[in-house]
Description:
The chain contains eight helices and no strands. The termini are close together. With about 150 residues, the protein is an all-alpha fold.
Amino acid sequence: MTASEWLDRSLNHEDPMDSFSSCWIGFNNLYNNYPSNSERSSIRNFVDANVTEGDAEEIINLHDTEIAYFMSQAVINLRNSERDTQIDINAYNESDSFIAKLKSILMIAYQVRCNLVHGGKSPSRERDVELCRYSWPFVAELVDRYA
């Protein structure tokens, strides 16, 4: 399946976890074209190669609600509880660059994805469902624009 097909599939789910998972697979299809020593670096490389400052500003401005949610509480790395996304929250708040802000948001969404894929998220926990609900729009926006 192509990135666009995964995006279409994500639009057909009522469950935010399923929507986010399907959409992330499409995004993975895009950033895999920018191999690096880590997935995080590949995501950053994808943004650097494709997203303009103006596009990043537009994406950020479209998603005030989602950003406010991410900024309200860090996402814990469930495989290493000493790490969380506070560093990404700080980077977002300290940057004047919309590209840098978008990368910070994507690093938070990536942590949500990691926790979900590695079994650390539950459909019965409201916070876990909400994290997927608020992560999905950023990933969907990128897949829609760049697939």
